[in-house]
Amino acid sequence: MTPGEVGWRAGRLVEQRLPRRSLGAASRARLLGRANAGWEPVLHDFRNGVGRPVLLDRSRAREIAGRHPDQVAALVEAADRIRAGVVTYFGHPGARLGWPIDWNHDPVSDVRWPLVDAARIDHRTAAADPKWIWELNRLQHLPWLAEAWLFTGRDEFAELALVHLDSWLDQNRVGQGIAWRGAFEAGVRAVSVAVALQGLRDFDRLTDARFERVVRMLASSAELCWRHRSRYSSANNHLVGELAGLATVAILFPELAPSPRWERQAVHGLADEASRQILPDGAGAEQAVGYQVFTVELLMVVAVLLSARGDVIPAPLTAAIDRSADYLAAVVGDTDPDPRYGDDDEGFALRLGPEPRRTVRDHLGLVAAFTDNARAREAGTSTLAAGWVRAVRGTVEASPDVPAARRESGFVAPQGGLVVLRSPGRRITVDVGPLGYLAIAAHGHADALAVTVSLDGHDVVGQPGAASYYGHPEWRSVHRSTRAHPTVTVDGQSSSVPGGPFLWTRHARVRVRSVDLDRGIVDAEHDGYQRLAAPVTHRRWLSAPRGEPVVLVIDEVTGAGVHEMRTSWPLHPDLDVERVPQGHLVTRNGTTVLQILAAAVPGATLDEVRGDEETHLGWWSDRLESRVPSWLVGGSTRGATPLVAATLLCPPGHVPVDEFTVARRSDLITVAWRCGAERWEAVVDRSRPGAVTRRTR
Questions:
Q1: 274-284 per-position pLDDT tens digit
Q2: N or C end: fewer C-beta atoms under 10 angstroms in the chain?
Q3: For residue 346, what pLDDT is reported?
Q4: How far apart are the first and last CA of the chain?
Q5: How far apart are CA 647 and CA 250, in angstroms?
Q6: What is the mean pLDDT of the chain?
């Protein structure tokens, strides 16, 4: 950390140990610009949308219901589950909240969080998972209830939303309890509460007193978002969430005296962060696709509100949203699965649809509704959230005959550090980017030079997912590690050094030597193992020419000493594995999908693991706090450097029937294999970047 950050963090620690200045009192002293007028005229203007934009609106609800009856029915069903007191978060089973709701009780762990000053709660060492209780206290179900009321006219939905708000305010005094542990949670919650309240604005049981109480809480939330905003190495998606919450309160409640200042601060900050956190090539700076989607949607919430008010949206916001969409659409292509790089906590900026999580294609449909981005329109799917945005923006829903706009032959994202190689039915990605964002790289994984393969729209070799944040620390440790990713470990170590569950103390740095999209060649190396007592460098070549079905990966470890080098290939859980000579046969429902063959100098030892409870290897996670067994296959070699390993990924019909060899002589690495009657050879000239040649003999 820089001296400035050390000083800032020390000041925060001191502040947390002092009696907290009441946020509620601070906001109350300067709450209304026309304090003597009382709350009745303020609520009147709020009901009529005077001086502020409107998102959830009865006339728009009628239009959406006519266009998308099935999606509306699914939303109403989700709202009915809330009426029944059942919530489901992440990979946890559904939980019944009971009545009255205890907003500080986690029924999954049967733990009640203490109602003390939020700064005194150490969520990292608690007996329960704070992610679950935070998710409940984000109140993201309130927009569902407001929408269900607008769609159906059933007053029980609107009344329940207000009863939940009353109950939550009764139990969660500003600054007290786990719900107020951090400005980020306050910011994300403020977005949902503010939008939901506006959806309920003409409900006759929204009284002056109820309205005043909620707005005072939102004002306190806004103040917390600015005063305790994330800074320095913590200024990742959390800062965007805090600024989005601040902006939403300021835009929807202009009567608050600080609102003009809050809006200027928030919108200016979001424009800056949009340029920082969405890189020039469109990749997310955090190296985590889930957080890229979340960050962009936080930017979009504010941009949609500004647009609905008739304002010009700051150019950095729309530019970031568009370039992110171009990047994500290019990665998913026609049928490819979502990329799974880095952490993903399934966060929603604003939950306007019943889907349990946002896919990349759902996100692209939302972007298309906002910017009419051509690539997003083609790759995106229609959701209820997109319907609301289209109703505000006046954009047209994409038709199936939109002309192709994506990059078909692959591309390089130079700042994000992703190479995508395509052949018909095949997508290969190579991670040549940084570990993560800023000094702590909180949501990055130690996956330098990882290679993933999807075939015919299905993951085959992939990333293992995040698995857990707090609930299972042992899962988190392994799922962030190099061993669990499709790359190389040396001496059982990760390429980057963890310092905690959301901290890396040493980052592997990747150097790209050459990328040739036309020839399907990637040549890169990283310095993550230079820290070892006998330092070494890992270099990887990938050869996947377009139109040639066999993929070749060559790994080399050079430097000093004796080491173990191990390759890992995590497979999707719907795949089975059988050991064969020199490798593994990969099948799905009895049909061959791939053969993975290994050779090494001085010699390869094969291994495979699935669902191991001791090492926590051989697991795949699609949802946080959930995992399923999956095969992790690979090979290892041990000896004095240099060490060389070769891996051949062969689809059906191109399976080497006998030999597969690798040899290293001076600067030349030669790999040979035979497919049927054809003998193939690939030669790498180490002295020339990207010098990989394939030929038949």
A1: 999 999 999 99
A2: C
A3: 95
A4: 56
A5: 56
A6: 93
